[in-house]
Amino acid sequence: MSNLSSPYAGVFFDLDGTLADTAPDLVAATNKLLEARNLAPKPYEFLRPYASAGARGLLEGAFGISPEHPDFIPLRDEFFSNYEKALLVESKLFDDMNHLLDAMDQAKLRWGIVTNKSQRFTNPLVKLMGLSGRSASTVSGDTTPYSKPHPEPILHAARLANIDPTKSLYVGDDIRDVIAGKAAGMKTVAAAYGYCGCKEPPEVWGADYVINNPLDLLKIIFPNRE
Questions:
Q1: How would DSSP label each residue in 117-172?
Q2: How far is 23 from 44, CA to CA, in rounded Å?
Q3: Which of 14, 173, 174, 177 is catalytic?
Q4: Which residues lie below 8 Å from residue 77, measured CB to CB, with a gap of 6+?
Q5: pTM value?
Q6: Residue 225: what pLDDT?
């Protein structure tokens, strides 16, 4: 792999639902809210797609409320507390993701993380997963004044890594990842194996590529590999 060349200068990943399968712990933190109110927990399969939108999505799935609801903020804060206490119980990199990252590391193709998750959770989770020393840059939803679909977090990650965004890929499992990546001048990849919580399927998001497994990305970033 070390002699492979790539037409790209770097690859940037969304975190939840793209780089790592964090839904098990996010859903567990959500169901604790329901159980604390003597309500039945929701099935994992039901709540998993909502994890793509973080606390906002999960609270919508569990309680049917939006951020405008008066109960949203206290529920969100309780959710954050639950989640912070159990960040890495069942969460893990998606199958084959470590193989993909190893291949990029061996080829000296730099990669980074751009997520809407708060630094409060991103930084310890990335460290616990052993990625903090490997990622060229890690940008959270509150690192800059903006969050995706605004392009600034992705552009900020590219600046930190000293990587030309116009020669990079952005990979994500939500349509806002595609919107943000395109606005940042990157080629975009829709991760169809992720949570994909929006109503439209990944094939219609307008991404340059759609992948069904992390290893599918190898064919894109190393088009001449045998």
A1: S-HHHHHHHHHHTT-TTT-S-EE-TTTSS--TTSSHHHHHHHHHHT--GGGEEEEE
A2: 8
A3: 14
A4: none
A5: 0.95
A6: 77
**71 catalytic, yes or no?**
no
Containing H/E element for 180? Answer: helix 175-183
Q: Which tokens hold the place of 172? A: 């994500």
DSSP track, 75-126 = HHHHHHHHHHTTTTSS-EEPTTHHHHHHHHHHTT-EEEEE-SS-HHHHHHHH
Residue 208 known to be catalytic: no
Strand 187-191, strand 209-211: pairing: parallel
- Active-site entry in 16, 21, 173, 177: 16
Beta strand 20-21 pairing with 92-93:
antiparallel
Pairing status of strand 110-114 against strand 10-13: parallel
Which is it for the CA torsion 55, 57, 58, 60, positive or negative? Answer: positive
Quote the pLDDT of residue 1. Answer: 46
Q: Over the stretch 192-210, which tens digit does the pLDDT of each residue have?
A: 999 998 889 999 999 999 9
Cα dist from 32 to 26, 27, 54, 102, 195, whole Å:
10, 9, 15, 36, 21
Q: How confident is the model at residue 3 (pLDDT cuts 50, 70, 90)?
A: low
State how far the Cα of 224 lies from the Cα of 17, in Å rounded to an integer: 28
Q: In what order do the strands lie in the sheet with 187-191?
A: 138-139, 110-114, 10-13, 168-172, 187-191, 209-211
Q: What is the pLDDT of residues 110-126, one digit of tens each?
A: 999 999 999 999 999 99
Query: Nearest-CA neighbor of 192 among 207, 210, 204?
Result: 210
